[in-house]
Amino acid sequence: MAEKTLDELLADLNPKQAAFLRGLMAGKSQTDAYVEAYGCSRDSARSSACDLLANRNFRPVYVRAMLESFDGLIDGFKRMSPVILRRVGEILESENEAVAARVIDSILDRIGIIKTTHQEVSGDVHLHFDKRYEDV
To answer: Is 40 a domain residue?
Structure first.
């Protein structure tokens, strides 16, 4: 039996589940996507979103959609990398050191590098790779 396409999997979702998935794929938090899709309170949405993500019928669709979306995202980053690098360079060379420091911290955090500062006499800064990114 052939594996279902993403479109076929999406057709199996009800309209509210599909709206929730679209919200997640647009980068919304689980809570925000659930509130928007189901029109409920934020308190109710927190646990309901977790329940839906664990649902054996919804989860495979979510995982497949996110993986296919991730592949497209990577291709987009490859095309935009010169623009991104130029802009990061401009920020780092700016006169505002606080902004440059926040940009560096954010980039390091997002790629899984943890910065630790030792309060010893040397004051060295050490970078450690998060285990999740060792194979990248």
So the answer is: yes
